[in-house]
Amino acid sequence: MRIDVVSIFPSFFDVLEVSLLGRARGSGLLDIGVHDLRDHTHDRHRTVDDTPYGGGAGMVMKPEPWGEALDAAVAGRDDRPVIVFPSPAGERFTQATARELSTRSHIVFGCGRYEGIDERVFDYAAELGDVRLISLGDYVLNGGEVAAMAMIEAVVRLVPGVVGNPASLIEESHEDGLLEYPSYTKPAQWRGRAVPDVLLSGHHGRVAQWRRDQQVQRTRERRPDLLPPE
Ligand code: 6GU
Q1: In whole angstroms, what is the distance from residue 54 CA to residue 57 CA?
Q2: What is the pLDDT of residues 119-167, one digit of tens each?
Q3: What is the rounded CA–CA span in Å between residue 214 and residue 209?
Q4: Which ipTM value was assigned to this complex?
Q5: Is residue 137 annotated as involved in ligand binding?
Q6: Beta-carbon neighbour count of residue 43 at 10 Å?
Q7: Using an 8 Å Cβ cutoff, are 156 and 20 in contact?
Q8: Which segments constitute the tRNA methyltransferase TRMD/TRM10-type domain (predicted)?
Q9: Where does ligand 1 bind, in terms of residues with CB under 6 Å?
Q10: 156 is an annotated ligand-binding site residue
Q11: Helix (H, G, I), strand (E, B) or coil at 218
Q12: If both were cysteines, with which of 73, 99, 115, 213 could 4 make a disulfide (CB 3.0 to 4.6 Å apart)?
């Protein structure tokens, strides 16, 4: 998988060198390019934004640097990319979105500031790839960088070979529509707190039933919106 990121804060993405993603990059499963939007400006001040036509608060990102940066992000490739613009005004990002994106060979993330990018950029981007505006949730971040990072991690760990044990991908929260069951390890007693007896019983059927019950109970308490209406 190839990922290109366009941002005015390219150093945010230095952290992609470490951990799971760093290993994926080292192993050749993942190739990431980070592009500084300001490298595609041509004025002395490297200007990326301007006041909005029609007035109003805040600044809007200018189209010309975005056009050049997106051209650079797709240059030399013959596969049609998906171009993701992280935006609080987008569709919600879910595990299903992550699964879909994990099947693509090339993803471009265009990280704008939350006030917005000139609307014509999205229209132009649709000539280069399949455009998606995607939001992490109903709250506002200053820019798309942190959101893109979260999406990259959620997507890349689903690429075959990136997570060492594929079984750990199947049992986790949101893959079966329920929250994860609680986990315990040794010691069996810790600071007056015991591990539930059923987990020490060695009875696989009862363990499985208990875990399923815990998943349903937790989901009902914490995320009733995930359950079918009663
Ligand atoms: Cl994707 N971007 C911004 N700027 N804020 C957000 C978001 C994205 N998702 C939730 N809040």
Answers
A1: 10
A2: 999 999 999 999 999 999 999 999 999 999 999 999 999 999 988 777 7
A3: 9
A4: 0.94
A5: yes
A6: 8
A7: yes
A8: 1-227
A9: 86-88, 114, 135-137, 139-141, 143-144, 147
A10: no
A11: helix
A12: 73
